[in-house]
Automatic annotation (TrEMBL):
Protein's recorded name: Gas vesicle synthesis GvpLGvpF
One Pfam family in the UniProt entry: GvpL_GvpF
Family designation: Belongs to the gas vesicle GvpF/GvpL family.
UniProt source species: Streptomyces iranensis
Compartments, record wording: Gas vesicle
Main subcellular location of this protein, as a coarse class: other
GO cellular component, one term: gas vesicle
Keyword vocabulary terms for this entry: Gas vesicle
Protein's GO biological process: gas vesicle organization
Domain of life: Bacteria
Length: 250
């Protein structure tokens, strides 16, 4: 009688990666991750680093619940030390692949952790505003000319040309005001980076700040908002995990 063949080893399970921290980083107890049935959060250690992971959900979608869970965990981790947060949706084939990547990028990750230690990210978006259109007509020669032409010979095409010119003028004056705002805020930040273009915005910038400088930065935004409200609308978001200022991620 032959012995039964041994059962095949279970296939490695893919893991969802939230971020990279120092190996000594304290983990918040009882946290779960993303997905309809969130799995417990744990760490994979390699050398001086640890990756914060959970079992990857079978079907991962960018639902608001999961986006918030991902970001909230990154913010919670950041209260106890620096973290290199991953963008939403980072899935690795298994724990061993994460461990290998940590070892390969250890020096870069440690340098990035040092760079964001004690810091937060704030994001500012600037949008054109339709306030004080009279000033736009007075200041923008193209808008003034087309407005006069539309009054002399009203019609659909004249209205379309005027509307397009107004939109361009609003965007130009918002961009000029946003450039002034950017220069002033960059002076009170440790670092500034431009983010990807966002539809409807003339500025999408992120600022790296010392945690202790948050109130000063917010105060500067509060001061600049009314000073430029006739030209640009400012939308401040944060504090955020330092997504825009980390390199050498696992």
């Amino acid at each position: 009688m032959t012995a039964p063949a041994p059962a095949p080893a279970p296939a490695p399970r893919s893991v969802y990666v939230y971020g990279v921290v120092r190996a000594s980083h304290a983990m918040p107890p009882g946290r779960t991750g993303v997905g309809e049935r969130p799995a417990p959060v744990r760490t994979v250690r390699a050398g001086a680093l640890a990756a914060v992971i959970s079992d990857a959900p079978a079907r991962l979608r960018a639902k608001r619940r999961d986006l918030l869970a991902h970001q909230d965990l990154a913010l919670t981790l950041g209260r106890d030390g620096p973290v290199l947060p991953m963008r939403f949706g980072m899935v690795a084939p298994d724990e061993e692949s994460v461990r290998r990547q940590l070892l390969c990028t250890q020096n870069d990750c440690l340098a990035a952790l040092e760079r964001v230690d004690g810091r937060i990210e704030m994001n500012l978006k600037a949008l054109p505003t339709e306030a004080d259109l009279g000033a736009l007509v007075r200041e923008d020669p193209e808008v003034s000319r087309l407005r006069t032409a539309a009054r002399r010979a009203p019609g659909y095409e004249a209205s379309v040309r005027l509307g397009e010119a107004v939109a361009r003028g609003l965007k130009r004056r918002a961009a000029a005001a946003a450039a002034t705002v950017l220069a002033e805020l960059s002076a009170v930040a440790d670092a500034t980076v431009h983010g990807p273009e966002v539809e409807g915005c003339v500025l999408n910038a992120s600022f790296l700040l010392d945690r202790r400088g948050r109130r000063r930065f917010e105060g500067a935004v509060e001061r600049l908002t009314p000073a430029h409200r006739d030209r640009v609308e400012l939308r401040l978001t944060g504090p955020l995990p330092c997504y825009s200022f980390t390199e050498g991620r696992a």
